From TrEMBL:
GO annotation, biological process: double-strand break repair; mRNA export from nucleus in response to heat stress; negative regulation of transcription by RNA polymerase II; nuclear pore localization; poly(A)+ mRNA export from nucleus; positive regulation of transcription by RNA polymerase II; post-transcriptional tethering of RNA polymerase II gene DNA at nuclear periphery; protein import into nucleus
Name under which the protein is recorded: Nucleoporin Nup133/Nup155-like N-terminal domain-containing protein
Domain Nucleoporin Nup133/Nup155-like N-terminal, first and last residues per copy: 55-419
Gene3D superfamilies linked to this entry: 1.20.58.1380, YVTN repeat-like/Quinoprotein amine dehydrogenase (2.130.10.10)
Amino acid sequence: MFQLRKELLVQSAPADQGSAEPAQGSQSEVLTENDKYKVTQHRYSDLELPPGAIGTVDTALQRALVQVPEVLYIWDYTSLQGTPQRSRIKLPEFAEGETPLCLLTGGDAANAGGSNGIVIVYRSSGKVIFYENVDAVNNLYSKLSTELLSHQLDLKLDASRGECVTRALAMDPVGCVLATSEGRVLFVSLRDSVGRPNVRVVKQLNKPRHTRFNFGFRGTASPRDTVVSLRRGPQTNKDENTCYITTARGQFHIWRLVGAFNAYQLLNVNIYNAVLESLRDLYPFAYNSLQILDSHPVDTSGDPTRHIFLSSISDGQQKNYYILSTVIFDLELKTFSVFSTYRLNTYQAPLAGPTLPQLMIPEREPSQEIINVVVQFPHNVVLTQISSKFDLSFTLKRKWEDILSFRDDVYFIGTGYNTSQLFLMSICGDSQCKIVQVDLKGTNETEHGRNRFVKSHVEQAVYFQSTAQSTPIEFNLSDDIYLDEQIVSEDLSICSDDIFHSKSKFILSSGEVNLLGNLKSRLMYYNNFLNFVAHNFKERTSPQLKCTFIEKYEIMNCCLSLLQFIDQKPNGALQEIWSKILLANNLSLEEFVISKLELFPTVLTHLLKELAGVSDHHTNELPLIIDFLIGILYNSVLESGENQLKLNAFGLSAHDHTPLPWFITLDNLTSINDLFFQYKFELAESHQLEGKDQVSEQFLTLLKILYYCFNSVKVWFAENTAEIQAQAQQYETASQINKLYVDNHTDWNKVLCEVGYEQQSIQIAEFYQDLESLVETLETLPHDDPMSADYYDKFFEKYGYKFATALYEYYCRTNKLNDLFYRFPKWKPLLVQFLGNNQDKYGEISWIQNVFDGEYEAASKTLSGLPLLGTPMDAGQLHLNIAKLTALAADGPDVEELTRIQANLDLLAAERDLMHNIADADFTINTWYANTDFEVIYVKVLQALRETKCVSLNEVIELYTLTSSQEAFIESIRVFAAHMNTLPYDVKKYLTAAIWRRCILHDGYFNGSVDDPSKSLLYGVLVCFFEEQLYEEGDFSLPQPTQLMDHSVSHADLLTNLYAQYLNDGDVAGLRRTIDDDIEQIKNLGESLTLKVQSLVSNANDSTGNRCVVDYETNEIVQAV
């Protein structure tokens, strides 16, 4: 993995006083960076500090100082040495175990180039010690240095009230200012008027009021009157300085300190109520909770009238709001006003411990339009910016705000800052002294538009989290920070896209690192990104957005695996195909990997399709192709992406994705399925399918890929059925994928069984609830194996009727009737339920159970209700005969049911006769219907009969009447008369008209080729009609001219229902045209039609003994004799 930056450990020359750089040798490292700041850590591994150490960084003197109870360390933090030289000063023992306050001072005011001095203040005893030359006491015995070189002062603290020094501020060149726990502020001079050491209290700068209690005790300072801030102001001339004092009760003082002899007050006001009033409308609870915490001049070396006050208010629910109040003072009128109020948005933790937050405002450059404001909390640093122009637009300008968070085991022991840098001295678990340097970039906010807080922190976590093994930075965001969900989604999407398309400035270009290195680094960054999102925004982002992020990770990981695999096998078919696909898509490898990965799903689909096709010709490379497939899909996508990220890290369902995941397409699934079976057949042919664990594992892994993908489609379709059905293309794709699954899933498991992985097949089929495959795998186990019986009981109990259905369907499908009825007597109720629910599908079996249970009537109805069409005649006849027997065996036989059964038996007998008749050479289609759709029907029905399959009654009639044989027509009316009552009314009307119309059209008597009426085809058929009294069956009518010419009898819906299955695309228009032609031929016969039909009907009736009274005007039988 390549380095994030070309150098994280950099060196630079010492800067000027306004921009001092700490030593950046081998122990310095960049922790994080963005457009506003850069954070660097400098470690001093040889300096280990005990708890309670206190430090400071004096940027004016370019010195770092750390004091512990016995020793004081001072060094030049701008030194280029990795381990700089340090002064080590043994502290006098005025208070055992106490760590004093220490201040560095400059040289004599008259001699600015003199050495640095140091002031040591013992807080409890009030002893002040001044050394005017640090170098003189370096490593000197403390007693000797105290006696010979120190200058001392006793502050005479009030021990009765436990008074101690709480704050100290160096005020070069005039001395220092000390604050005590009693609220006193003392101006201490260090030198006399000619620059000689002379430590004395010049003046007490404030006189705190005390709250007196009854009982005569002395009062103590109010807790709200303690000094919370000592700040240095501008140095007005060589020996004058300004000091700002703020107390917890809001008392604010400005003092002018003059040389070593005097101090006078410029201002003394209380800002507490004014700040409180400014918060009243937005924060009513401020009245009971406002605390003044710190203050700082806006311009340290310039205007003394503008100050920012830090305060806190609490809502009483363990949440604090921290307020920055900008206050402008009028020194002449001794008045002030609260100019603006701003609440910090990134930190809301309650105050903890005695240490208060610290406000820091680095001096700005004259050209800067913004002012940096920093608030240091125990483990956090909040940075914000305000406009340097205090005009009417000041409060309307958007405030930039950010937060640096540190680990809980990181403790700040001192700070320092200059115009552009902030220094945080810290210790952590390893006790090493460290300085965290924050370089504040003087970037005006308007240069970059809206600040993207989320984007900035995501980038820091992504690109810097791995750069330092022991980074003190805590990159995760606090739950207290309010973030707009839309902005979160936008910023996360930008960060994701920057990595995916190599747009981030932190990603090395292909010129700096090879393609594999580039992709590896992006993958590492993207993994950091996903971890950050999972930890910070799991509940603030939609499942769809999280799936989009995971998808990009999977694509990059899959692409990396692909490139690594090709890199290992550079001369095979895989490399050849890969190069061809890139060329076909007009892509260079570099362009594709760096910025075109959105095309990867399409490219992968082409690759898999090519591999599935080429494997037929490169069978020797099939094992390699299978390993490749497993590597890029299972390891890189399913395991790393779907399992570890989607399911575990983000807690999503495997199906939280709409539409389907990028790798699940019909083409991909088809290719994987093809490769699965090609590999199986190749191994089977070479006798390498069995006995190899590696091969078994390969098939198992492929099966996991297939099942995961198809199951995702199944769930997706179930959850989005309405939407998918509304889109024809999506519905068609889903249907094709489902068909692919149905056609192959049991065969996958058969292969697993063939390689000896029956148990694994059972496990995966159980996991995905593929009960059909589960049953088929269980059936490979020996029946006498106790484990087999346990499995069946387990799954009967777990899945109940669903498992029973899969098992019983398997037995029915494979004709294992003995197992069906006898193997699982314990679960007979489920068998009875299954057979009862599936009589339409398994009626030819379910009747057996009815017989076993003595339910003969049910058995008879089941058998008689079995469909006959298309089934073998022998089977149909057997079922009907058994139905007849069981009907007779039932209590109180159903006569109507028996009649219906017998009618079907008779129809079967007629079909057998027809089957024998078609063997006759004269049994051919009438040439009139040749080359029409009726011939298509004729041929297909004829074929069914030759195969001894049952056909319908209307098909029997059609077959007889499409010939020219009188015997065929006679047989047709016999069959029709016998069974016409089983037909719907419109079918009867259609067949009646068709029989008589075709009979007339094929009769030579009507077309003039036959003169003798007794030789007429119709006459012979009518004789049979009267002689056998066929008119008595149903309502079989005589031929009526109006009926023969009625087009509506043969309507399209009727023809579609009867014959669409025989025609291409189910189009019956050709049948209608043929029937219309028949009707036109009938109409062309004119008046002779009626006369000849009447004559033939009369003659036929006479020849058979006039058994009917016929109305010859209408050809209706009035009465049968």
